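Study this chain:
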Amino acid sequence: MKAAFMYGAGDVRVEDAPEPTIQAPTDAIVRIVRSCICGSDLHGYHNMSASDQGRPMGHEMIAVVEETGADVGTVAPGDFVVVPFVSSDNTCVFCREGLHSSCVHVGYYGQIGASGLQAELARIPHADGSLVVVPGINPDTADEAMLASLLSLSDVYLTGYHAAHVGQVVPGKTVTVIGDGAVGLSAVLASRSLGAERIILMGRHTDRTDLGLEFGATDVVAERGAEGVARVMELTGGEGSHIVLEAVGLLPAYEQAYGIVRPGGIISRVGAPQYEDAPVGFGSLFGKNARLAGGVAPVRAYLEDAIGQVLEGSINPGRVFDRIVTLDEAPEGYAAMNDRTALKVMLRA
């Protein structure tokens, strides 16, 4: 089968790889319908040390079940499914509390003895807990917009939703989203769906912020750093934002976040942090009685509801995909996202 591997910074290759097999009775084998490239995949694309052994890539997929282990009971061959970006058993104490990304059996694709999900076939551990069937949809006849929105539920949209959810977005609140990437735009859409009164999007790429406005942003702030903080404070009458959703993961974005959060407000981070130390003292959080939330999105906890919203047409998060390439063309897709000529690239077989 074909699968994408990363051998170092800027070095993505699509190679022939052994087809995955059932290794445990709780496994399933799935065949790609669509996969995609994530902004977090670019971290390695920027700085991974060269290696003779490629790292399997990809953690987002919609697929058709090909084979199941003897203990799998909730999915069957032929089912069309969404694959969350981490596997989980959906039964442990943390899953029952809605924290599937902290499951005692959590697995990350490409790091759990299976291929990544930028591949023709993949092994899914704990298939009963991980895979969610999309009812009533034939992937062979579904239109691309529907497939794109379902694929976004594997990670990007529900990561943005997680930011809004744990940030406690409710009607009447002002939300500021930092970052105009696919997760930030998803956070705008999620905040609008949760009833936010005002949504300020901090981003400087007009093709992306224009989509953010269509998703529900009421204001766009292109300035960064101190100028960006000053502009948001001006827009909020000097009060700051009730909720700040940080979707970048870099320290300057976090510094902007605590600069604009309102006293008593919440900063919710879902941008994978590329730093270890974040100020939490008097000048950042403590003095404002501000709270810090966020983390790795438990996508599985939100999937059934989100699939229903997509199927009924109340959300269309797949609009963040602006380029489709074949799996063979994955290296070109990485380059396009790295060069910012594409927002988010979808892969098809």
Summary: The longest strand covers residues 28-36. Residues 160 and 187 are 4 Å apart (CA to CA). The radius of gyration is 20 Å.
